[in-house]
User: Fold these one by one.
Assistant:
Number 1:
Amino acid sequence: MTMGGRFLSRGAVFIIFLAWTTGSISAISIGLAGDATFQIVSGQGFGPKEQGGGGADIYLQVPLVTWVRLGASFALSEVVPSDTTGGFVYRGYGVGALGVFVEAAGPLGTWDRVGSFEAGGQLGANADWAAYQYTTLYFFYPELMTEGFIGVRLAGLPALQLRLSVPVRIELRHDLDYSFSTAISFGANYTFGGDR
């Protein structure tokens, strides 16, 4: 076995030991969310217009400490074309996105027979691969994201949390002057083992 192989093996054992002793891996969460999106976009010498859309994402979270979680996500979304006022239109497009984020949350309180409430926020970044509708024109852009949320962990099923959130995204596209979006998102996540 080479020295590099020994180092890799020791590194893997260390990571497994760290996860085992801190309990982070035992409290892994998986979630699913859907959203309705409102976007404002402007570019190529044309004025700003609104576009609507929607999407869904699946995500995985691992707690670093009690109130901080690290996550990764995969999302699919669709943006519809803008209206034709002013004699121009911004095309609609579909997007597949891979993202990473860090989340912090704290308790709000408990409501008998309903569950425990928490509020928090996320900061993250996405790598987006998109295609304009009815074309084979593909393009890539990075995206920055922040999100505020309120969640309730159900009294009868404490492993399940329902969540309402408002994500805000900035698309860093080279073909536009700017593109911002916000959404209303509803989802749920399930925690496997560990502290909830």
Number 2:
Amino acid sequence: MAISCEPADLAENAKCLCFPKDVEGAVIIYLLKTLAANTMTAAQLVEEAKPYFGMPEDVKQAAMLYLTCEIANLP
């Protein structure tokens, strides 16, 4: 099912998906890992993610949003 990747549409659809800040990142990682059918352990994920550690927080958020929308629109 195709979804709109327009920022306003994404913000509207995400209003009901609020998690405490301390678990939000873990939920995102779990969902993306599941969608990607990724079988890496947590330690392996951390190792593979090291090149992205220096990204500014706003850039990380934009990149996650972009990639998530691409995943959601895969055939």
